[in-house]
Design a protein that fits this description.
Layout lengths: L1 H16 L4 H12 L4 H7 L6 H41 L17 H14 L4 E3 L4 E3 H4 L18 E2 L1 E2 L2 E2 L1 E2 L2 E5 L5 H9 L4 E10 L10 E11 L4 H15 L6 E8 L2 E10 L22 E10 L1 H6 L8 E8 H7 L16 H4 L3
Parallel strand pairs: 1-8
Antiparallel strand pairs: 2-7, 3-7, 4-5, 6-7, 8-9, 9-13, 10-11, 11-12, 12-13
Helix pairs in contact: 1-4
The structure holds phenylalanine (PHE).
The site of phenylalanine has 12 residues, from strand 12 and strand 13.
Length: 356
């Protein structure tokens, strides 16, 4: 028995030498030490021995088992270390490879324009506020000198808020999605102390969709009320804004117009930058963008006495001017931005948005 054990030990140790990976080692372990392995099989023979011989053989068998186990574990530790080193070498990090840069977003071009507009007017002391974008007919029309059912209301193509299919109504009339930021005028007069320098920038809504019109767009509304305010102040403010926003070479002009809430009323124009205000291109053809050398920015005027009264202000003591211009339109008039279809601004197409 002892000899057999000696031989087996030698065989196992030799076999182990030839192993080069963990699975090979495991195979050997099963073959020699597993439940039906060579060593347990051999040890079954112990039973048949006489007491003394069994003791001796048993003790020796333990020795053999210990030394074989040790050889197995030592090799296992080696092989495991080797396989870790190999896996690491394969997956090693090449610090010279360019990394993956995360996308960095930026403000939407409308928000950028709003920030710029706000900053320019703040230099003249206009304070930004936000009056409601869902408001009573009273603030959107009534207090602005629109008689009930006056056809001029149609110019504003207003959305009304429904209550079970019927226009919702309350003490201040119907509820509208504000079609212009002028609803902020009388609200500001009610809220603020005089003098007033308000810049109300907000979303506005009209029933219109086309390549040049959106049902939702933005306006910025200036309102200045003080003693002895004149048209010259309005023009000076307009000119300041245009030169800051569009550039010092741009010219301004006003054309007579009509609004219910200003008197006199104007449309304000900015010289076209494509044809430098001439209306003609170098090739002798009319400028495609403006045709006449001027681009229309939007409406303005001196605040109507009835509007001042609606806001609790005495028109014999105070006067003021107001203007309301579209953010998107103003932005597109700035050189370099040529958007053939304005709807693309709010379709969240990254290929478009990333450009600004
Ligand atoms: N609210 C007018 C519009 O939407 C613009 C305007 C504002 C005109 C203030 C005069 C004074 O067209």
């Amino acid at each position: 028995m002892k000899n057999e054990l000696k031989n087996l030990r030698a065989e196992i140790l030799e076999a182990i030498e030839g192993v080069s990976d963990l699975s090979g080692l495991e195979d050997l372990r099963v073959k020699y030490l597993g439940r039906k392995g060579t060593l347990p099989n051999l040890l079954k023979g112990l039973k048949g021995l006489a007491d003394d011989a069994r003791k001796e053989a048993g003790a020796f068998a333990n020795e053999v088992k210990l030394s074989v186990d040790e050889a197995f574990s030592a090799l296992q530790i080696d092989l495991e270390a080797k396989s870790r080193a190999e896996a690491f070498a394969e997956a090693h990090i090449d610090i010279t490879r360019p990394g993956i840069t995360p996308d960095i977003g930026h403000l939407h071009l409308t928000t950028q324009a709003i920030e710029e507009i706000k900053t320019i007017f703040s230099r003249l002391g206009f304070v930004q506020v936000r009056h409601p974008e869902i408001d009573w007919d009273h603030y959107a029309f009534g207090a602005l000198n629109f008689p009930e059912d006056h056809p001029a209301r149609d110019d504003w193509e207003t959305f009304f808020i429904d209550d079970a299919g019927k226009a919702a109504e309350g003490e201040n009339g119907k509820i509208v999605l504000t079609p212009h930021t002028s609803n902020g005028q009388v609200r500001e007069m009610e809220r603020s102390e005089l003098p007033i320098r308000m810049m109300n920038i907000n979303k506005t809504y009209r029933r219109q969709v086309s390549a040049r019109h959106l049902p939702m767009f933005h306006q910025f509304e200036g309102l200045l009320i003080d003693k002895d305010v004149s048209i010259a102040d309005l023009l000076g403010t307009f000119d300041f804004f245009v030169k800051q926003f569009f550039g010092p070479e741009r010219k301004t002009r006003l054309r007579p117009h009509h609004f219910r809430f200003t008197e006199p009323s104007f449309e304000l124009d900015v010289s076209c930058d494509v044809c430098a205000g001439t209306g003609m291109r170098e090739n002798g053809l009319k400028c495609k963008l403006c045709k006449v050398g001027w681009l229309e920015l939007g409406g303005a005027g001196m605040v109507h006495p009835n509007v001042l009264r609606a806001g609790g202000i005495d028109p014999d003591v105070y006067s003021g001017f107001a203007f309301g211009w579209g953010v998107e339109r103003t932005m597109m008039m700035k050189g370099g931005i040529n958007i053939p279809d304005i709807r693309v601004m709010y379709q969240n197409d990254m290929r478009f948005l990333e450009q600004f």
